[in-house]
Every structure is written in C-alpha cells, then in structure tokens.
Design brief:
- With about 400 residues, the chain is mainly alpha-helical.
- About 70% of the residues lie in helices and about 0% in strands.
- The protein starts with a helix and ends in an 8-residue tail after the last helix.
- Keywords: Cell membrane, Membrane, Transmembrane, Transmembrane helix.
- This is Molybdopterin-containing oxidoreductase family membrane subunit.
Length: about 400
C-alpha cells in the first residue's frame, strides 16, 4: 500500500514538472506536438486509402518506414555501451549519462514499434502479432523473433531505470542485487535485438544483396557508432539548457566508443565493397545500382555517396585525439556521423535489396509526402517521449523531485 502511495506521488510530481518550464521548453513541446498532429493527419490518409499513398510498390515493398525501423533498432541497442560500464564495471564517469541513454533507448524502441505499425498499413492487422490469436508463426518466422526481442528489450529499459529512479525519489539507494541481473541481461539482449534484425534480412534467400555474413557484425558496429553519437549530442543539449551537469570526461569517454565503432564500420564497408566489385557476379547488380546506378537509374547515388563522404570525414576527425577532445568539433563529427549512418542503414541498405527485381526489372523508390509526414510525426513522438522521460529523471537526480512523507 505504501509503494502505491509513493508511486501515485511520483506520477503527480512528474506531471507537475513536465508541464512547467522555460519559454524555450514550451516552444519545443509545442513544436513537437504540431509535427505529431501533422503526422497523425498523414497517417489518417494512409488508413483511408491504404499503402497506395506511399511510394512503395509490389516491386519495392519496404521503404522509409522499415529504413527508420532498422536504424532505430541500432540507436536503442547503443544504450548498452553506457549500461555495461556503469552497472557492471562500476565506472562512475558513465553514471551521469546512463539514465539518459536508457531513456533514449525507450524512445527509440517505441518509434521502432510505431514504424512497424505504419508499415503494416494500419493497426487492424496487429492482432496477428498476438500469440494464440493471430498467425504469429513462432519460431519459424524471424519477424516474430524480432517482435519478441524488441518488446523484451523495451521492458528491460523501462523497469531498470524506473526502479533506480523510484528508489532515488524516496531518498534511498537502489539495491545492486535487484538491478544488476537485469542490467547484465540487457547487455546480451541489446546484441540480440540487432543480430535478430540482421538475420531477418540475411534469411531472405531471394535477396542476394542481404546475403552477407558481415551484415550482423556491421549492424552492431554502425549501431555502436550512431547511437552513442546521438547520446553525445543529447548530453550536450541537456548540459546547456538544464541544471544537470555532464562532465567533459564523460562525453570524451563516450566519444572513444564512437571512434572505435566508426573505424570498425569503415573497415567492414571496405570489405563489402571489395567483395562486390573485385570479382563481381550477377548478384552484384544491387550493389552496382546503389553505388554507380544501373541502366540509367541513379536515384540513390546522391544519398549513398553523401553518406560515405560524411562517414569518412567523421571517422577521420574522431581518429585524431586533438580534434576529438575539442567538444565543438566532436559535436560536429557526431552529427554528420549520425546522418551518414541513418542514410547508410536506411536507403543504402533496404531499397537496393529489391533492385533489380526477380525478372530484372528496375523499379526505383521515392518516398511520398504522406510517408515523410508520418515519419516526421513518429520522430517527433519519440522526441516528446524522451523529453518527458529526461525531464522527470533529471528532476529526481538533481533533487527537485522528492517524496514528501
């Protein structure tokens, strides 16, 4: 009964703190709400007319929605790079940022699920995802494995931070015996969600572009580059606009993780390019379309070469210790690296897998305004969820939110 009373007080205090703030805070929340409403309007059009209002066809059946889903799985998995040093290795430098990282993981996972719903056409078919009711097809379908691991990782990233914040709200220390086992499990689970997503593509025999043994490891490398890069940018914003101070050494340690992951990602990219173009076969046509165009079709050329250029520039900047330790340069490098991997794991991975089609036909894909509107709405929803979670967590950690007996 007492815990219920404390929980009720926490909810009431959280609602109080997230509805108050500076003018910039209210403008930010108003802007996100506007984008969400635009996204909902676009989604209502999709519900009325179906997926025909998107740029997807029977030739290219995955587009902007699945591209963002794949990328955000990596962003969610990146929280493990803060969880493991903090909860397992007891590194106090990461302790300031771990709750922010886990909040980011929760927002990313909710966006992942929202993009899956959008790609399915509408929520009316979601009952198929419920075991025992729909056609779940477990364990044969890799998609069902993906649903299980994503929801499991979401559960871990909600319960562990909630327990810690719930204890801190009462002025008590969290018991390591309670949260450390969950933290250890989340480390392996984070790797699992990304490998299962990679296996989802690798298991499609008719799509040779994805039949690559490096796909899983490269998913992890790009995730541990883009995710912590985003965390660094978020921490920079938080320490600028809030009282929650993040020390430079915390950001620099995370930057080292980004650097190593970005370097490994580049090495794997070179390995893939060598495999595709040194001894090309007819299975290399998807890669030729992506990097050089095919039969005059060049829609993805500006995207992929922009991504590679930004990727290389960011990795070079991060590699040099002096440049990486300059925070302004570091923020720039993290920003362009994030954009580069978003392109690379989005259009650069999903669309070429469908081109050319089984009969050699090249049907290019371009997202419509409806798709872009829904996508922006889901990203705004994720940003709003993260803002609410971060504002509550910061309030508890700074002592503004305390349980009043």
């Amino acid at each position: 009964m007492r815990r219920l009373k404390v929980f009720t007080s926490l909810v009431r205090d959280s609602l109080d703190i997230i509805t108050k703030g500076s003018k910039k805070y209210h403008l930010w929340m108003g802007f996100l709400t506007l984008i969400i409403l635009i996204g909902m309007y676009c989604y209502s059009i999709q519900l009325e007319h179906g997926l025909s209002v998107t740029g997807m066809t029977d030739r290219v059946s995955w587009g902007l929605y699945i591209s963002n889903f794949t990328f955000l799985v990596g962003v969610a998995a990146a929280a493990v790079m803060l969880v493991m040093p903090t909860y397992v290795l007891k590194d106090i430098d990461f302790k300031q940022a771990v709750l922010i990282g886990e909040g980011l993981a929760v927002a990313a996972l909710i966006m992942c699920l929202a993009f899956v719903i959008a790609d399915m056409g509408g929520p009316s078919v979601l009952w198929h995802m419920i075991p025992g009711f729909g056609v779940f097809n477990f364990p044969n379908s890799m998609l069902t494995w993906d649903v299980i691991v994503l929801n499991g990782y979401l559960f871990l990233n909600i319960t562990i931070p909630f327990y810690i914040l719930f204890r801190h709200y009462q002025g008590k220390e969290a018991k390591a015996s309670v949260y450390v086992p969950g933290a250890l499990l989340s480390v392996f689970w984070a790797v699992g969600i990304h490998l299962v997503t990679a296996f989802l593509y690798q298991g499609l025999q008719a799509r040779p572009f994805w039949n690559n043994a490096l796909l899983g490891p490269r998913f992890l490398a790009s995730a541990f580059a883009a995710g912590p890069a985003l965390i660094i940018l978020v921490l920079a914003i938080i320490r600028t606009f809030t009282e929650f101070k993040i020390e430079d050494k915390t950001i620099k340690k995370i930057a080292l993780v980004v650097t190593v992951a970005a370097q490994i990602n580049i090495i794997m990219l070179v390995s893939e390019l060598f495999k595709e173009f040194y001894a090309p076969t007819h299975h290399s046509e998807s890669a030729y379309y992506l990097f050089f165009g095919l039969d005059g079709k060049t829609a993805l050329l500006p995207w992929i070469w922009t991504a590679i250029t930004l990727n290389v520039i960011a990795t070079v900047i991060l590699t040099f210790h002096k440049l990486r330790n300059n925070l302004k340069i570091l923020y720039f490098a993290c920003f362009i690296l994030f954009i580069a991997i978003w392109i690379e794991k989005g259009f650069g991975l999903i669309v070429p897998g469908f081109i050319p089609g089984p009969y050699g036909k090249i049907a290019e894909y371009t997202p419509t305004a409806i798709e872009i509107g829904v996508t922006l709405g889901i990203w705004a929803l994720g940003a709003l969820i993260f803002t609410v979670l971060a504002k509550t967590a910061i309030g508890i950690e700074t002592g503004k939110l305390k349980y009043k007996k």
